[in-house]
Amino acid sequence: MSDKGTEHGSLGEMYSDYFLDYASYVIMERAVPHLGDGLKPVQRRILHAMRQIEDGRYNKVANIVGDTMKYHPHGNVAIEDALVGIGQKDLLIDAQGNWGNVLTGDPAAAGRYIEARLTPFALEVAFNPKTTDWTRSYDGRNKEPITLPMKFPLLLAQGGEGIAVGLACKILPHNFNELIEQCIRALRKQKVEIVPDFPTGGLMDASEYNDGLRGGRVRVRAKIEIVKRNLLRIFEVPWGTTTTSLQASIVGAQEKGKIKISRIEDNTADEADILVHLSAGSAPESIRDALYAFTDCEMSISPNACVIADGKPQFLGVSEILKRSAFQTRDLLKRELEIRLGELEEKWHFGSLEKIFIEKRIYRDIEECDTWEAVIEAIDKGLRPYRKRFRREITRDDIVRLTEIKIKRISKYDSFRADEEIKDLEDAIAETRKHLSNLTRYAIRYYQNLQKKYGKDRDPRTDEGEFERVDRTQVVAATETLYVDEKNGFAGLGLKREKAIEKCSRLDDIIAISQDAKMRVVKVSNKAFVGKRPVHVAVFRKGEEKIYSMIYRDGRDGAVLAKRFRIGGVTRDKIYELGKGTAGTRGFYLGVHDSEEESAPNTVLIHLKPALRLRNVSRLFQFGEIGVKGRGAKGNILTKHAVDRVVKAPRE
Q1: Hey, which of 247, 372, 429, 491 has its CA 20 to 30 A from 547?
Q2: Are 161 and 172 in contact (CB under 8 A)?
Q3: Rounded to two decimals, what is the model's pTM?
């Protein structure tokens, strides 16, 4: 057994450790983006490789993939797919050739046929070797960035998703200019609020966005216009779908009888353009609603903002991600300013040393020196009267640099020009210190300049607003016919030899009331049992306000009762007792009305069975005499005599 195996007390412990190692690797190194730069490792390595070969010209994608493999220990297909994904977002990579079509879902050409280079925006916001933290590549031969010094909320602009072991990430894209504006608000410590914006456009209801956290939801719709009575045009599609999949969903809904169309035509090029030709007699408004209800013309997206932060995965809202990005940008700008200040002060220091060394002819003091130490001492002695002019101590290294000045430079030294250069350095130092003392204002100007340079033609594409969910039962095309087998107690779409009831769809429910005063609601199907000797079978529509009038006998010898009731909420396939549940209960009459006012004047004639001392064997009863209650009410007693039958009273 290997040494690795002896570290574990049992096989279960060994597999547990290996599983945790694998899960941690997938989460940290493959699936979840880093908060620092908004990139997954493969994306970061692609951009780093492109920066290493950047010369302003395009490079073949296949070559970029090869260079990336020096840093990324996985297959070329994964790298190429990730590269194409970045390029299609049109932010960091300037793509040339056939990079596919996000609208139609068409794939990109092979890597040997397409080219790419970094955009000026990427070069400005993502790279600075002086502020980058580095690590060794997987084989130790190269160095790669731990994270790129990203000075922009890239993750929120591009969006990102990934599935790890027991963890998922889904961050939606947001608008470039809106992100910059919200970053400025964050730096000013004002309230930050952002909603997604999708490159495919469409309509969006982000009222339940929940800051991009788990449990939130965004509903997106295609934009559909009514061109004329028999023609609809889809010109923007929901994010997460393509014109190809959208057409497939429409055809599928048509085949299932949920919508009625004659044909569909796709003219998509740079913009989505799908024509839906309607069947004769169709209402375009209803078909449009049906498209939202039954096809990919409306999608529901569940975000789950998860990032790597502080060395572990964390669930952070998009507003928190944006705030951290804004203040990280400010910190990076501070580091850049501090580095620049140090470089400017070093240039000023040596420029001033050089000026004194040449103008005061200190270089002549070393002509008679016999040793190196004598040279150093002579220069040091010549500079002593001027030491107070400098902002730091004059070191031995400074003196050594002075000895390296060439005679040609000394002979052509221009004192006036040197004074101008030193003055320019002093102005630059003062300006840099000013920026450092007003860092937030400087960061805000940085964002404003980004927006001015790169924000053109990046207006929001998705129209935000709240919209009601379409009731599928209200817009589904009623293309089926419901039949009932009254003898055996079955109802369904496949009983074509039995009695036809009404038109319906496969989304509908059936309500059935049997002669023993039992009620049930079942799903429409080819054949379903609805109770013995059904006296009422119909399509059950929850939105319809139906009033039911009923007369029944309680048990075999009980009293006869009348009730007027509403159905209310029901559970599918549950049996409800409309009477008292006594064995032998029998219904004599059932009426269904569209309103309470319509049911009140409903009058029936009750025929009693002849009996001793019974003078009147029939009587009229009007349901308006009793109130409307719930289905659980037992009703009012009409008579304790035996009833022969109940019929609808003839109109006078």
Answers
A1: 491
A2: no
A3: 0.77
Model confidence over 471-481: pLDDT tens digits? Answer: 666 677 677 88
Higher pLDDT, 599 or 22: 599
Q: Which of 299, 297, 289 is nearest to 476 (CA)?
A: 289
DSSP string, 231-299: EEEEEE--TT--HHHHHHHHHHHHHTTSS-EEEEEE--SSS--EEEEEPTT--HHHHHHHHHHHSTTEE
Mean of the per-residue pLDDT values of the chain? 90
Bridge partner residues of 590 (DSSP)? 550
For 45-103, the three-class secondary structure string (H helix, E strand, C coil) is HHHHHHHHCCCCCCEEHHHHHHHHCCCCCCCHHHHHHHHHHHHHCCCCEEEECCCCECC
Packing angle, helices 61-68 and 41-52, rounded to 10: 110
Distance (Å, rounded) from C-alpha 120 to C-alpha 454? Answer: 9
CB 194, CB 320: distance < 8 Å = no
DSSP helix/strand/coil, 221: strand
Give the residue among 646, 603, 648 at the shortest CA–CA distance from 515: 646
Q: Which strand (E) or helix (H) includes residue 337?
A: helix 318-359
The catalytic position among 18, 113, 386, 413 is: 113
Q: What CA–CA distance (Å, rounded) separates 175 from 461?
A: 8
What does the DSSP assignment read for 487-543?
Answer: TTTEEESS-TTSEEEEEE-TT-EEEEEETTSEEEEEE--SSEE--SSEEEEEEE-TT
| DSSP secondary structure, 112-135, as one string | TT-EEEE-HHHHHHS--GGG-EEE
**C-alpha span between 359 and 390 (Å, rounded):** 16
CB atoms within 10 A of CB 211: 17
113 an active-site residue? yes
Residue with tokens 């052509």: 412
The answer, yes or no, to whether residue 6 has pLDDT greater than 70, is no
143-176 in b/e form (b: 16+ CB < 10 A) is ebbebbbbbbbbbbbbbbebebeebebbbbbbbb
pLDDT of residue 532: 86
Q: Tell me the longest C-alpha to C-alpha distance in the chain.
A: 156
What CA–CA distance (Å, rounded) separates 484 from 490? 6
For residue 90, the Cα-to-chain-centroid distance in whole angstroms is 18
Helix 372-383 and helix 396-403, axial crossing angle in degrees, nearest 10: 110
Do the Cβ atoms of 232 and 284 come closer than 8 Å?
yes
Rounded Cα distance between 225 and 420, Å, is 66
> What's the sign of the alpha-carbon dihedral 339, 340, 345, 351?
positive
**In which region does residue 507 sit, left (phi positive, over 0), alpha (psi from -120 to 50) or beta (all else)?**
alpha
- Give how far Cα 506 sits from Cα of 287, 299, 522, Å: 17, 22, 12
In angstroms, the CA 642 to CA 607 distance is 9
Task: Choose among 601, 617, 621, 599: nearest CA to 609.
Answer: 617
Interval 175-196: pLDDT, tens: 999 999 999 999 999 999 999 9
Cα distance between residue 366 and residue 208, in whole Å:
79
Dihedrals phi, psi of 165, to nearest 5 degrees: -85, 105
CA atoms of 59 and 46, how far apart (whole Å): 13
